[in-house]
Design a protein that fits this description.
alpha+beta, 120 residues, 3 strands, 3-stranded antiparallel beta sheet, rod-shaped, 3 helices
Length: 120
């Protein structure tokens, strides 16, 4: 679409050598408006501008969704507590503090914060 806009914009400024702008209207039977040949660049510029707007809006939307996701993920990591058996005692610790060797007590509805081995 960008390429089509650039080609359209380039062709709107192109005028074959030896041809006058008055001749274009007479070839079409005199139907052409006076300013139509001067305003041919508007179509290419409009396509180019609309594509640029769509790209910027999409990029901003993706950036805001990514920012929202990162904030939610960090909030979950900070707020979620997990019961683990460490050194023979049951402790409530944050998900970010879980280390290798901890035995997690899993309850219904818990989100598992790491890979591990299931012990029953």
């Amino acid at each position: 679409l960008e390429l089509a806009a650039i080609i359209s914009l380039g062709l709107s400024f192109y005028q074959p050598p030896g041809e006058r702008s008055e001749m274009c209207g007479s070839a079409a039977g005199g139907v052409e408006d006076e300013g139509e040949s001067d305003a041919g660049w508007i179509e290419g510029a409009a396509i180019l501008l609309s594509v640029i707007c769509v790209v910027f809006v999409t990029a901003f939307n993706d950036w805001s969704k990514e920012k929202q996701f990162r904030g939610l993920q960090s909030r979950i990591e900070q707020e979620q507590k997990f019961s683990v058996v460490r050194g023979g005692q049951v402790n409530q610790i944050s998900v970010s503090e879980i280390v290798t060797g901890d035995i997690a007590q899993i309850k219904y509805g818990d989100l598992l914060p790491a890979d591990g081995v299931l012990i029953q």
